[in-house]
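Run: sequence + fe (ii) ion -> complex structure.
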Amino acid sequence: MTTVTMTATATTSYTYTPLAPSPAADPAAFEDFGREVHGFDPASVAEEGYAEIIDALYRYQVLLFRNTTITPKQQFLLTHAFDPAATSYGHGNNKTGKETKSILHPDLKTIPHQPEVQLIGNGRVPGEYEGLDSPQLKHPHHRTFHKHPISEAEEATAHATRFYRWHIDAALYALSPPRVTSLHAVRVPQGPWQTVRYDDGSGDEVRVPKGSTVFASGKNMFDLLPAPLKSLATRTTVHYAPHPYVWMSGAHALPTGLGLETEGLELPLDSLPAWDEAAVKHLPMCWKNPVTGALHLQVHPCAARSLSVAPLPAGSSREGALFPDGGEVTDLAEVRELLTRVQRPGIAPKYLFAADWREGDLVLFHNRGVIHSVTGAFRPDELRMFHQCNLAASSDPVGPDADDVAKYA
Ligand SMILES: [Fe+2]
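>> structure
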């Protein structure tokens, strides 16, 4: 893959190389997406060096540093630099193990001496590791979550797999969505590439490295929509369920991993752990990039419970407009149908970046600017280890401003 190296200028201390796009990607969709950073050692640069990296992340959404050795403490400090007022892991420190009903429970092992950093992966780690006693890890398999999984025979013969679950890293209850997530690849078993099938009638499929983390830009997701859906997205607020990962714990995913089947399997609100209306999250459908000002369509489709659409602003054309007088969408099937309409185009194969992990990789991604998914499957004996860190943000994301509304609504 040919790459173009940007020359360092007086204003940049490091160099940035475009990430090699995935084979099916449309290069035009990735001009401003994804950079490998050279000259920045995340383990040793002092905080003064962070400002440029922070700016670059908001411009490029995903930054890759190769061949790093970085301790959990150093990883925390780098992640924390994006939000110095943040105080806890994205789901709350030491919370993931306690909500035993939460669907996130099995996937995260908290590193005791640095509780904002989680060990994730697959297989049993031999012996003591970062204060954990021979932790057992499990790569999430779509069979445990999708209503109609791929058969084991097809998995074995065709190396076929799915997007496990498209998401934003966020508790979406009480805590604000983290600005950035860092992932440090410690152990990465290699294997044949796998074919992710969408199985939604589109015929879409995409080849990805085994166990790839796939990313889709929320900016592309917004930009590619036709005007009536841009208008809708600009005017919509998403209401999330209280304790969403408990609420959805009995539900099954669509074959795309982009949201849930509507089967009435969500827990009734009165059988959830105690919750407070004031802690329920109501977030705009589009989040404004703090550096570029672009709108990113950012929704966790599994956790959304209802939508509110504001009326068109005075003077807007009503021709072709959806919900011109505004409205409330409370029927779960309708909520999900609408979310699929605005999100599914943005995860088409040509809009995907699929990480080809190598040991020593450190990836930072703009968690308020992309959605992402785990893919693939590993045998129980394949050891895979990543350190993941994100922090509940010190404030909620900001939605479209008056100019955006005037432009798009
Ligand atoms: Fe994630």
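>> summary
The longest helix spans residues 332-343. The pocket of fe (ii) ion is lined by residues 167, 169, 372 (CB under 6 Å).
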